[in-house]
Amino acid sequence: MIGVPLDHAMILCGILFSLGLLGLMLRRTLIFMLMSLEIMLNSTAVAFVAAGSRWLQPDGQIMFVLILTLAAAEVTVGLALVLQIHQRFKTLDVEVLSQMKG
């Protein structure tokens, strides 16, 4: 069985990570920023799985599970913050958050 070459997987990971970083820097809504972070986390997870399969080690799959749990925790905390911010400011624009003092 012939798998995907490591070069192709790393190119895909680089493109996905770049798109996530670009989305994080250009968009100013919290929901879109959370989705961009998810894309970046998934690209690193794919890189670990590709590297692990290249060297025939299960370490990449273990890291994938850890990254998935980190992403789930990030989504949970992020969406709770989004709900609180929306209730308080009635918007999800990040520029409005600069008005917060405390």
Q: Secondary structure elements and their pairing?
A:
Layout: H1 6-26, H2 30-54, H3 59-89
Low-pLDDT windows of residues: none
Distance between the termini: 59 Å
Written as H for each helix and E for each strand, in order along the chain, the element string is HHH
Q: What is the makeup of the main sheet? A: none
Tell me how many strands there are.
0
| Category by helix and strand content | mainly alpha
What portion of the residues fall into strands of 2 or more residues?
under 5%
The oligomeric state is: single chain
Count of helical regions: 3
Helix content: over 70%
The global form is: elongated
Radius of gyration: 17 Å
- Overall pLDDT score: 91
Give an account of the 3D structure.
Helix content is 75%, strand content 0%. The protein starts with 5 loop residues before the first helix and ends in a 13-residue tail after the last helix. It has 102 residues and is mainly alpha-helical. The chain has helices at 6-26, 30-54, 59-89. It has 3 helices and no strands. It is elongated. The model has no long low-confidence stretch (mean pLDDT 91).
What structural keywords apply?
single chain
In short:
The chain has 102 residues and is mostly helical. Helices cover 75% and strands 0% of the residues.
